[in-house]
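My convention is simple: the sequence line spells out the residues, with the fold written below as integer tokens. I include a record here:
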Amino acid sequence: MTVQELLAAYATGERDFSGANLIGANLIGANLSEANFSEANFSGAYLIGANLSGADLSGANLSGANLSGANQDGVIR
């Protein structure tokens, strides 16, 4: 899944991105609140300033991901 596909699907109301391969994705400042990213691969991704409030990140690979300034309120790990 590309970043563009993810953001377009999110914009249309999709919230289930479990298992998505987002290695190295540039999601700086993206609104991804309440989305299901369980078992997704965010290794090396840029989530700087992203809104992840209420997102499900259980089992997600966040190794090397940059979460500086990301809103992680209510994130499920």
In short: The chain has a mean pLDDT of 98. The chain is about 10% helix and 0% strand.
